[in-house]
Amino acid sequence: xxGVHILSLPLLRMRRRERKRRLRTAEGGTLRRECxxxxxxxxxxxxxxxxGSAGASAPAPQAPWRHGGGSxxxxxxxxxxxxxxxxxxLQGLLVPHLLPERCYDELFLRFNLLHVPCLKIxxxxxxxxxxxxxxxMVKLPQVFKILGAxxxxxxxxxxxxxxxxxxxxxxxxxxxxxxxxxxxxxxLFLMLQTVTIGFLTQHFGGRTTQGISFLVLYFALLCLLLxxxxxxxxxxLLQATNVPAIIIxxxxxxxxxxxxxHTGQLSAVTVxxxxxxxxxxxxxxxxxxxxPLMALTYVVSSLCNGVIAGQLLYYWQVPAGVEAxxxxx
Length: 329
Description:
Elements: H1 2-41, H2 70-79, H3 82-94, H4 101-109, H5 116-135, H6 140-149, H7 157-177, H8 185-203, H9 208-226, H10 232-240, H11 242-260, H12 268-288, H13 292-314, H14 322-328
């Protein structure tokens, strides 16, 4: 029995070696499959090193990555997800601020650049944001011109009040109806600049106390209109008065220009920016709000701003002063 046991030892060792070899082969196949998945997810990079049948861990030669071999190749592995990160950042920037998700997919994933409904949304949102951004400084040239001359000659205070009424109506009406800020945001910034011009007109006219009273009364009235105490019918009526308010305010300014024979301290930059902005607002108000009252307001505003712009061109070479009026007479 002892002899049989001694003779069977080599056979047992061979069986153990065979089992180990099969186990290593199975593990190597598993590693190769895992490596294949990794290479597929990374876009087909380098080869994998797996253990051979002899048990030696001999690394296979590494194929160069697309971004270069060695450390540069390894750096390329970390840099490869950058396009996906950039696409995600672009989507976060555009959706939902400029585009709904369906339009983002249509324009930037399917590259259907002739999809008219989505193009209208993109152009409308882009114009709206550009108008709001431009409104931050549209009347600053007018303010600086008044401050530089220390005079508001040529500006009609009644026209400023009516323009302020129109801006306030647009702002309160838009807030009450929940319109997107890109559809009316310029009214807020234009209102602040117009209030400043109104105060400067009073201040340089020797009526500083009246100018301060004007500021206090206006902002108190604005807080009341934006509060829940104001009924919706009153807000709609205020917006409806915008059209006659805009017409009368521009006619008053046009009459002042004609009576003086010049445009005085009226800023050409401000007038032309207002004219261009009101034209663009016709499209954005139709596209973003679908409110006919808002669209009508900007149509009338464009026509009236066009009249003032025409006067600026007509009186372009005429110096501001009493002498100019005498020459014309």
